[in-house]
Specification:
The chain is mainly α. It has 5 helices and no strands. The chain is elongated.
Amino acid sequence: MTTPMICLLITLLLPLVLAGVGGFYRTREPGGMDNNDPRGQASKLTGPGARAYAAQQNAWEAIALFTPAVVVAHVLGADPATSATLAMTFVGLRVAHAVCYLADLATLRSLAFVASLVCVIWLFVLGG
């Protein structure tokens, strides 16, 4: 498996890790975790719990951008070293994005988002 494909796997797992973080905050709510209506409960969270849920949702959305970028770069024979560097940078930035979300560091979070988007665009360009 190539480095970009491993990075894709990590990207796919990141929302699940964040779901665990969000689950921790939901268990701390009065009555514990509401497994009958987890999304309803998540929508009522505030503070770190709400940010964990938002980070999870954003991580799911990032998959929709990163997956085709990796596939296009791979299928069209982009330079493997550059593809690997961009993919690893993307993963690092997405982890930083999640950490910044949880820590309520909005400006740094936005910078990590924009930089990760640049990596996605660059992978597409590299493939073309």
